[in-house]
Design a protein that fits this description.
The protein has about 270 residues and is an all-alpha fold. The chain contains 9 helices and no strands. Helix 8 packs across helix 9.
């Protein structure tokens, strides 16, 4: 019983954090109003608490429930970050397609539609809606502007909307303007990749520090003690468990705050 609980909690955290592989096109959050198929955080925490309250006691079950909530939130945040990275990469590819189609003499609606096919997320929705409005003879700039707040590349959509309106009104080369936007997005992408590479070290160190208490429990059990029993079955252990988990969560939150500040808002 000494090592069962740490192994169970570690396995639960890994399962929740990693989860099943997510298809490339399904990384984006479901649109508003779409039914949710995954079990919500409070429900999952309650299920874990109910499953563990008898074998590990109320203190251990409560800690497991809290860790489940934290792990689910971390998983959702990681999925959101991956989706926004994919959207930025797709936006760059969409600009390349858009410029190539315009140079080939395609109509603006066709060029926007084909660019939207290679984009993802709100950027793809913006390009497709702009293509539809352009096909009806209306301005595409307004459609692009409507998705600025939801997009991972808001500056790109707002700049593209302005360039579209200006070039359409003045008869300038829209393909040339798209090329300039592509160059700016390439520079921004290179900067982001460099920052992400620099932040991998701190993220890895934070994760290693987060799991070190489990190794401490294993060492204590290996030396002949029963640290799990003390933590889960004695009042002093309950206090140590609550304080330790609280400090652990505070450290993870603080580290995440520093990393997000260094990497910029996603």
């Amino acid at each position: 019983m000494t090592l069962v609980v740490p192994a169970l909690l570690a396995g639960l955290a890994v399962l929740v954090l990693i989860g099943p592989p997510v298809p490339r096109r399904n990384l984006l959050a479901a649109p508003p109003g779409a039914p949710r198929t995954a079990m919500g955080g409070p429900a999952a925490a309650a299920a874990v608490f109910g499953a563990l309250v008898v074998p590990v006691g109320p203190a251990g079950a409560a800690v497991a429930g809290v860790l489940t909530l934290v792990a689910l939130r971390a998983k959702r945040e990681g999925t959101r970050r991956r989706a926004r990275r994919e959207e930025r990469a797709g936006a760059l590819e969409a600009l390349q397609v858009l410029a190539a189609e315009l140079r080939a003499g395609r109509s603006p609606s066709v060029a926007l539609s084909r660019a939207g096919d290679v984009a993802s997320g709100p950027t793809a929705s913006a390009l497709r809606e702009a293509a539809g409005e352009s096909a009806l003879g209306e301005g595409a700039g307004a459609a692009l502007s409507r998705f600025v707040d939801a997009s991972a590349v808001p500056e790109l959509l707002s700049s593209l909307a302005v360039c579209w309106d200006v070039c359409q009104g003045a008869g300038s080369s829209l393909a040339l303007a798209v090329d300039r936007l592509e160059e700016a997005l390439l520079a921004d992408q290179a900067c982001r990749e460099e920052v992400e590479a620099d932040l991998e070290g701190p993220r890895t160190s934070a994760m290693l520090l987060a799991v070190m208490p489990l190794f401490g429990l294993g060492m204590g059990a290996g030396l002949g003690g029963d640290p799990v029993h003390v933590l889960l079955r004695t009042p002093v252990g309950w206090g140590c468990l609550v304080i330790g988990v609280g400090l652990e969560l505070l450290g993870l939150w603080w580290t995440g705050r520093i990393v997000r500040g260094a990497g910029g808002a996603e």
